[in-house]
Amino acid sequence: MARVRWITTRPYCAEPWASAWPRSPDSCWPEPLMSRADKPLPPLHYLLPRIRLSRLLAALAYAGLLLCLFIYNAFFADLHGANPVVILGVLLVPLLIFLPGIAIGNVRAHAWLCFAINLYFIYGVQSCFVPGKEAYGGILVGTSVLYFIAALGYVRWSFQAQRVRS
Questions:
Q1: In total, how many domains does the chain have?
Q2: Residues 29-58: pLDDT tens digits?
Q3: Is 132 within a domain?
Q4: Residue 98 belongs to a domain
Q5: ∠ at Cα 136 (110, 51), nearest 5°?
Q6: What is the C-alpha separation between 122 and 56, in angstroms, rounded?
Q7: Rounded distance, CA 143 to CA 84, Å?
């Protein structure tokens, strides 16, 4: 009869749990790694121009989106007999809710509008596939993407600047 060499596939620290060995299960696991050191924050002279530029781009994209929605739906859209005031209200009121915060440069208003702006991105993509509305949809997609990217930069750099100042 041939000799068989048994190889255990269980980790060595499973045995103390299965039996009454005196060694504690905590000694089986490796020590937790130390958390990484915090990355140094950029200096203010690096952050301030980026904050100004991203806020300007976000404000321009926000205004462009408002104007595009207003001009197209007030003058060019075939609303099939619907009241244009109602259509404009449904499209513009969600954006206008954020207007006071955007005007004063509130960082959290920019962050929250990043969530709401995605609805206009989806509306723009859908409009791109409707014959005759490709340009309108393209402008909506472009302004919503520009706002989203600029606002994310503004939020990130503004919070970094707040941490540097404190």
A1: 1
A2: 555 566 677 789 999 999 999 999 999 999
A3: yes
A4: yes
A5: 25
A6: 24
A7: 22
Distance spanning both ends of the chain, measured CA to CA: 77
Domain of residue 110: give its range.
44-165
Note the pTM of the prediction, 2 decimals: 0.76
| Tokens standing for residue 66 | 């408002």
Hunting for tokens 């859209």 — which residue is that? Answer: 77
Asked if residue 159 belongs to a domain, the reply is: yes
Between CA 147 and CA 51 the distance in angstroms is: 14
Report d(CA 140, CA 123) in Å as an integer. Answer: 8
The answer to whether 110 touches 155, Cβ cutoff 8 Å, is yes
Tens of pLDDT, residues 58-115 = 999 999 999 999 999 999 998 888 999 999 999 999 999 999 999 999 999 999 999 9
Give the sign of the dihedral formed by CA 88, CA 94, CA 97, CA 100.
negative
What is the C-alpha to C-alpha distance for residues 155 and 117, in angstroms, rounded to an integer?
A: 15
CB 58 within 8 A of CB 157: no
**Does 3 map to a domain?**
no
- The CA–CA distances, whole Å, from 33 to 29, 36, 37, 136 equal 12, 9, 12, 53
